Amino acid sequence: MEPSDIAREGVVVAHYGVAVAVRFDADGPVRVRVPRRTPIRVGDRVSVEGETLLRVETARGVLRRRDSHGRVRSVAANLDALGIVLAPRPESPLGFVERGLVAARASGLDPLIVVNKADLEGAEELHASVAAGYGGTVQVLRVSALSGEGLGGLRTWLEAGRRGVFVGTSGVGKSSLLNALLPDLDLAVGAINDASGLGRHITSTATLHSLAGGGELIDTPGFRDFGPVEVSARELATYFPGFEESLGEGCRFRDCLHRSEPACAVLAGVEAGRVSTHRHAGYLALLAELQAVEDSNRGH
Ligand SMILES: Nc1nc2c(ncn2[C@@H]2O[C@H](COP(=O)(O)OP(=O)(O)OP(=O)(O)O)[C@@H](O)[C@H]2O)c(=O)[nH]1
Ligand SMILES: [Mg+2]
Ligand SMILES: [Zn+2]
Question: What does the pLDDT read at residue 300?
């Protein structure tokens, strides 16, 4: 029997729509055809015979998002950690960090905020404001793919064989950071459009890479729509960054949605200045979005 006739277990390291690349313990990636719309993601463990996909194993730590058309998209699977990448240029959409943190908590992933392009003007202010807003509960790193500053912190974050994924809007430097972490890697990186200040969507497919010192990191195509999937409107507040302390006080109503209910601990937190009105407004916007999805699923 040829070795290729034996079913082997591997991990999906790239997804090309009609095919995936599968890496095995013993050898490098093999291209495996998959029917369109097969629910298979980078990071999935699969069983393969020759060049045929037999089975996709049940995954844990799955990151999904809802796009602006309401479609659910899988980002990656079998994750331990989520790196939310920001830069002074291009700016990230309003609420992107909050959404990332909600998604991480709902999927059981350890979140990290990465402020890239530390060499650029504005990085210091961005880092300071992100650290002030989220630093209490989440680690915030200031790094530069260009100068190499702070890369040690990223390596440490993935130590002990953890698997992380980078998400962020196009052009913040996700692929550049991977290239900087892995000298042998040569992922395509792109210029920012001078007129719009936006990235040009250089990366078109998610890819998984192993770091020399341990751990794995997944590069993903940039996106702006980060609708939460793994969380219901009812649960949102418990995952929302900055509400922890206030929620600990307890609201009068057990099903309080923290909008305008009497004796609401979150509203009391806003009143006392523990929760910024800006943060609360971000919560209300996300809550309305989740309720709209739930209403349409109920056939309203
Ligand atoms: N000054 C500076 N520029 C950087 C840094 N990191 C990345 N860039 C530049 O930012 C631009 C976009 O970088 P990419 O790595 O392609 O960004 P990306 O997040 O992978 O973008 P998508 O693949 O489109 O999602 C490129 O011109 C990079 O050279 C950095 O630390 N400092
Ligand atoms: Mg990229
Ligand atoms: Zn409340």
Answer: 62
